[in-house]
Amino acid sequence: xxxxxxxxTVVLLTIFSFLIILLALHEIEMHFAMxxxxxxxxxxEYPIGHSDLSIYMNGKKFYKQLFTDIQNAKQAVHIYxxxxxxxxxxxxxxxxxxxxxxxxxxxxxxxxRLGGLLLSNKEKKELKAHGVHFTYFxxxxxxxxxxxxxxxxxxxxxxxxxxxxxxxxxxxGKKYISENKKLKHWEDVQLRLVGNGVKGLEDQFVIDWRRxxxxxxxxxxxxxxxxxxxxxxVSYTKLGIQDEYVKLFKNAKQSITIYSPYFIPNNKMIWxxxxxxxxxxxxxxxxxxxxxxxxxxxQAATKYIRQAIKHGIQVYGYxxxxxxxxxxxxxxxxxxxxxxxxxxxxxxxxxEINCYIYDQDFIKSVEPKLLNEFNQSFQITESYLNNRxxxxxxxxxIAKLVEFYL
Length: 406
Fold this sequence. Notes:
single chain, 406 residues, alpha/beta, Endonuclease, Chain A, 2 domains, 14 helices, globular
């Protein structure tokens, strides 16, 4: 029995030592990767476009419209989601891509290498057998290995026939239609565009495809149709987002409203600019998902929520389930709908793309839908934070150590 105990002790110590060494190597490499701006690129500001816009916050309605648009495609389908599950809705989505390709319409489909872990080899083979062009985005590399693992392509881009586009928070899977028993209700925000404004989205898709695949791709012919709403796509690969957000917060005159599933603004310049806004009389409200689909992010948010409250910022936690939209409104003049979370990963580690909308009529039309999310939320107070269970307090301390990666 003593020999077994000694053996198990040696095994556990060996595993623990290995993990410590691995963690140390990870931190050392990430330090140099950040210092040298490895996997970082300047942001791309695409020309202003004009499209007819609409938003989807319900997964079933979004999938119904998306699947219909793909089925009606005549020219081409270019589509990228950060992740895909292995369930009925995912299989339905993949079957539609295969059917469309069988009709002779070029279909290009990408998924993030880690976000696509649940995509089976069988499904990949079937996609290719049906002529679907498939690739993974942001494959890990041996050079700066840990940095490449953390560098994910978090964009969601759909372009159909050079006329219809989608961007937002939804991925593919049954949890996005509120059919995950653990997560329950899922609320998200997806923007649908019809018009020449999809060009910026298409250009970014082609750039990402060529960066990740040897398969040739030709950009779609973009419609000359000009929609009613003026908007602009901006893509980020670690750089540029800090300057953009600081400028927006400093220029705000009446209000800043942020909707994000995660609230971990681990960026001093962005955070300081936001905390400074209430001093100028700007009304700042933040809505985040009180319940989360990721570990420790609830606890990592706590210290920022405390600071926000002390600086006069109102913070609300979404109650019915998961809120996963990425939205920001500045005064009545700008609405951002995109893929960027208000968290450390989006600010420092991942590829993102946002759509900045300048049409005040559109902003006014969707504002009630967005503000309704506050009616399904509760305001976080210092008293609430002080009375959290001791388990959350322990998790909060752990979260502080790893918040950069959350």
